[in-house]
Specification:
Layout lengths: L1 H13 L6 H9 L5 H9 L8 E4 L1 H17 L10 E5 L14 H6 L8 H8 L3 E6 L33 H8 L5 E6 L5 H6 L3 E4 L19 E6 L2 H11 L15 E3 L11 H16 L3 E3 L5 H12 L2 H16 L6 H8 L6 H21 L5 E5 L8 H5 L2 H21 L3 E5 L8 E5 L5 H19 L2
Parallel strand pairs: 2-3, 2-4, 7-8, 7-9
Antiparallel strand pairs: 1-3, 4-6, 5-6, 5-10, 9-11, 10-11
C-alpha cells in the first residue's frame, strides 16, 4: 500500500487540486500532504465569479487546521477528513446568506443562524468548506443560466451551458477548484450538471437526506446529493451525508438483469448521446449482463403528469415564494417566474390529482421493475447547447430546458435514487443514468460500478 501512495507523490506535489477525494484521503493518512496545505492550494485558485458566489476562507482554514491536528495526533478519522468541498448556495451555512441564485435574496441579507443539518453532518465528518456556488435562481431550470450573477460556462467549453440548477457546484469540481461538491436535485439538478461536466452525481431517495435549512423549490421532490470526479467519491460523500460510518463501495457480485426501456428515454436523442448509450449497453451485454429493451408504456403516463396537472415545483414554489415574486428587487428571473406562475390559475384539485396519480404510477412502476436490478437511460438527451443560443431566444430556451430535464425528471417523480456516470471521455459530457427502487442507493452504486468497469477503457481514454 505504501508503494501505491508514493506512486501518486510526484503528482500531488505538483498540484493537489487535481486529486480525487480518495487520493487526497490516502495522502493525508500517509502524511504525504496536510489538509492545511491542500486547502491553501485551493484557496489560492478560487475567487468570486460566475461559479463561486462567496469564498469561506476563515472557516475553511479553521476546518483544515483541525484536520491537521487530528492527523498529527493519530486520531481515528474518516475518509472525508480534510477534504475541500464546495456547497450549493441554497444550503444554510452559519453566518452566511443563502442566496439561491436570487439577487433579491442577497439584498434581503438574511443570515443563517446555524448550519443546515446536512452541512453539520459534513462538518462533523471533517470536510473543509471552500465556499458557496452559484446556481439557477430558486433552482428552477436544468440549463444553469442566471441573469443576475452570470452563467458559468462549461469547464470544458465555456461557450456552452453548464447544466443546472447546481451549475456552479459541478463547474468548480470540473475546473479543479474543489475536490467535490454538494448540490440539490428536484428534477435533475445534481445529475444534469454532473453529466454535462463529465462527473458523477447521485440523486438520493426522497427523504433520505434532511432538506431542512435549504431554500426550498419543491417540498415534495427536493433532495440533496453529491457531485464528484469518481463514483467512489460520491459513495464516500453519500455515507457522510447520511451520517453513517464509512464502508467499502458496494460491488455487484453476480450477473445483472437491467432494463433499458426506449419509451420516453430514447426519443429525439442527439446522435452522439445515442451512440454512446448503445455502446454502453453493448459492453454490458458482452460482459454477460442481461439487457431488456422492452417498451414500458407506464413511462409515458409518468411523463404526461406535468402536462396534465402542472408540476410539483411550480405549485410549491408559488406557495413558498409568492411574496418574493411580487416584491423582489431586483425582480426574479422572468423565465423562472414564468415557470412558477404557470400553475397560478389551475384549480387546487389539479395539485391533488397530481399527487394521487404520481403515487399510483410510482407504486405500479416499481412493482413492474421488481425483477430487474436497475433501469438504465441516457442522463441527458442532448449535448450542452451554446449559452448565446438560449439567452435571447425564448423558444430555444424552453425547448432546450425541456429536453435537458426530460430523462432525469422521470426518476424524481418515481422517487428512487439515480446515479449518473460518464459514458464517454470526460470532456464529451455524456452521462449514463442508473436508477433503482427507493431506499436502494447501495445497489444503484453497485450497478453503476459494474457499468463503469466495462466502459473504463473508453471513458478514461
Amino acid at each position: 500500500m505504501r508503494l501505491l501512495y508514493t506512486s501518486y507523490r510526484h503528482r500531488m506535489e505538483l498540484d493537489p487540486t487535481t486529486l480525487t477525494l480518495q487520493q487526497l484521503a490516502s495522502a493525508y493518512r500517509n502524511h504525504t500532504l496536510k489538509p492545511s496545505e491542500v486547502t491553501e492550494a485551493f484557496l489560492a485558485r478560487i475567487h468570486p465569479d460566475t461559479a463561486w458566489r462567496t469564498i469561506l476562507t476563515d472557516r475553511a482554514r479553521r476546518q483544515a487546521a483541525a484536520a491537521d491536528r487530528a492527523f498529527a495526533a493519530g486520531t481515528p478519522v474518516g475518509p472525508l477528513h480534510g477534504i475541500p468541498i464546495a456547497l450549493k448556495d441554497l444550503l444554510d451555512v452559519e453566518g452566511e446568506v443563502s442566496v439561491a441564485g436570487s439577487a433579491a435574496l442577497l439584498a434581503r441579507g438574511q443570515i443563517a443562524e446555524r448550519d443546515a443539518p446536512v452541512i453539520a453532518r459534513l462538518d462533523a465528518a471533517g470536510a473543509v468548506f471552500l465556499g458557496k456556488t452559484h446556481m439557477t435562481e430558486l433552482a428552477f431550470s436544468g440549463l444553469g443560466l442566471n441573469p443576475h450573477f452570470g452563467t458559468p460556462g462549461s469547464a470544458h467549453d465555456p461557450s456552452r451551458i453548464p447544466g443546472g440548477s447546481s451549475s456552479g457546484s459541478a463547474v468548480v469540481v470540473a475546473r479543479g477548484e474543489a475536490t467535490a461538491a454538494i448540490g440539490s436535485d428536484t428534477g435533475g439538478s445534481v445529475r444534469i450538471p454532473a453529466a454535462l461536466q463529465g462527473l458523477c452525481g447521485l440523486k438520493v431517495t426522497d427523504g433520505a437526506i434532511p432538506t431542512e435549512g435549504a431554500v426550498a423549490l419543491s417540498t415534495t421532490l427536493d433532495t440533496i446529493g453529491p457531485i464528484a470526479k469518481t463514483l467512489e467519491d460520491v459513495w464516500v460523500l453519500w455515507r457522510a451525508m447520511r451520517a453513517v460510518s464509512p464502508a467499502p463501495m458496494p460491488k455487484a457480485e453476480r450477473v445483472l438483469r437491467l432494463a433499458a426501456p426506449p419509451t420516453v428515454f430514447m426519443d429525439r436523442l442527439d446522435p452522439e448521446v445515442k451512440a454512446a448509450f448503445e455502446t454502453g449497453l453493448d459492453r454490458l451485454e458482452r460482459a454477460g449482463h442481461e439487457i431488456d429493451r422492452t417498451e414500458r408504456p407506464i413511462l409515458e403516463q409518468v411523463q404526461s403528469l406535468y402536462a396534465r396537472y402542472g408540476s410539483f415545483a411550480a405549485y410549491e414554489a408559488l406557495a413558498l415564494h409568492d411574496d418574493l415574486l411580487r416584491e423582489a428587487d431586483p425582480p426574479v428571473d422572468p423565465r423562472v417566474e414564468m415557470r412558477i406562475r404557470a400553475v397560478e390559475n389551475r384549480p387546487a384539485s389539479d395539485y391533488l390529482r397530481l399527487g394521487y396519480e404520481r403515487d399510483a404510477l410510482r407504486n405500479a412502476f416499481w412493482m413492474d421493475m421488481a425483477g430487474f436490478d436497475a433501469i438504465l437511460a441516457p442522463t441527458v438527451a442532448i449535448r450542452a447547447p451554446r449559452i448565446t443560443d438560449l439567452e435571447n431566444d425564448e423558444e430555444a430556451y424552453v425547448e432546450a430546458n425541456g429536453m435537458i430535464l426530460r430523462n432525469t425528471t422521470m426518476f424524481n417523480l418515481l422517487g428512487g435514487p439515480a446515479v449518473t456516470v460518464p459514458i464517454l471521455p470526460r470532456p464529451m459530457g455524456v452521462g449514463g443514468m442508473i436508477a433503482t427502487a427507493p431506499g436502494t442507493e447501495h445497489h444503484a452504486i453497485a450497478v453503476a460500478r459494474a457499468w463503469q468497469d466495462v466502459l473504463s477503457d473508453l471513458v478514461e481514454a
